[in-house]
Write a structure and sequence with these properties.
Elements: H1 6-12, H2 15-22, H3 37-45, H4 49-57, H5 71-76, H6 82-96, H7 104-124, H8 133-144, H9 151-167
Helix pairs in contact: 6-7, 7-9, 8-9
Length: 168
């Protein structure tokens, strides 16, 4: 078995890996913790759409003309603009990353990604994802199992679960 060259390992490490080594396994400074998810979710739901999505839509109307100023407004609107839902879905999908080992802030983004999809399905009766109903159901079930899911989002996911289950 070859000897480990610790100097070479240090030089090949990413900054995050080096920080973990230097902190001897302590949490990264400033890292979001799982207990922060409810506050993160509330913060993002009240965030102005214009600030987050302006780069993606340019000077177009982001829904303010129909009372949509925040992501929460978007999810609760009875007829949200389809284009705005698609933009939000892509935005949150990018932030969520891939895989089962998401950090807390990525889990919140994944939840919001799912909410954009189920909002389109429930409020507009359209699909804005390439996922089949069968593929979408586990995500909706995951969302429903999160203790930090707000009541209005829980209601939306339960309605989506009914719709998706009928078509599955």
């Amino acid at each position: 078995m070859p000897d480990l060259d610790s100097a070479a390992a240090v030089f090949r490490s990413s900054p995050e890996q080096l920080l973990k080594i230097m902190n001897l396994g302590e949490e990264l400074p400033g890292a979001w913790k799982e207990r922060d998810r409810p506050q993160m979710l509330r913060h993002i739901r009240t965030a102005p759409l214009e600030v987050e999505l302006r780069a993606k839509i340019g000077d177009g109307d982001l829904g303010s003309s129909i009372g949509i100023k925040t992501f929460g407004d978007l999810f609760e609107h009875s007829q949200p603009p389809l284009e705005l839902l698609q933009l939000a879905k892509d935005f949150f999908k990018e932030k969520a990353g891939a895989g089962a080992n998401r950090r807390p802030e990525q889990e919140v983004a994944y939840l919001l990604y799912l909410l954009t999809i189920v909002t389109a399905r429930v409020r507009l009766a359209v699909s804005i994802t390439q996922l089949s109903d069968q593929e979408l159901l586990p995500g909706v079930d995951w969302a429903l199992n999160q203790s930090w899911l707000e009541e209005s989002a829980r209601t939306l996911c339960l309605r989506a679960r009914e719709i998706l289950g009928r078509r599955a």
